[in-house]
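Anyone up for a design puzzle?
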């Protein structure tokens, strides 16, 4: 089942900017600018990640650089296992780092998860995690 480029199921249709599999085999989830991620938005994103994985374990890069907030129910969803083999959280500001560190400090991530401000470093780390599994 193809996954739409835009989130058409959430009111306003704008929580997920894009979700795609890149040529390196990394899933890339980009949250829309200024989004406040709630439980249903988080669940929709994870369901779509699982659809794209098609039962395979794939690395996941989540661009959260322009995310306003992540609700408690959303953090609970992100603590559940999905088909991602490792998750790199990509941010660009101290606020992004606080959101990511709060999540990582309060919840045990189901797979290796790390925060980055450099996309290249995030991709290299995801690729090293994939190599370690082989």
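Challenge accepted. My sequence:
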């Amino acid at each position: 089942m193809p996954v739409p480029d835009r989130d058409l199921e959430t009111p306003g249709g704008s929580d997920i900017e894009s979700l795609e599999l890149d040529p390196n085999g990394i899933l890339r989830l980009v949250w829309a600018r200024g989004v406040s991620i709630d439980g249903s938005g988080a669940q929709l994103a994870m369901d779509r990640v699982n659809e794209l994985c098609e039962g395979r374990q794939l690395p996941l890069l989540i661009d959260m650089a322009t995310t306003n907030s992540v609700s408690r129910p959303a953090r609970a969803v992100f603590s559940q296992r999905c088909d991602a083999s490792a998750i790199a959280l990509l941010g660009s500001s101290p606020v992004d780092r606080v959101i990511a560190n709060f999540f990582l400090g309060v919840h045990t991530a189901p797979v290796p998860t790390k925060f980055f401000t450099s996309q290249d470093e995030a991709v290299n780390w995801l690729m090293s995690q994939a190599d370690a599994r082989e």
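A detail worth pointing out: The two ends are 28 Å apart (CA to CA).
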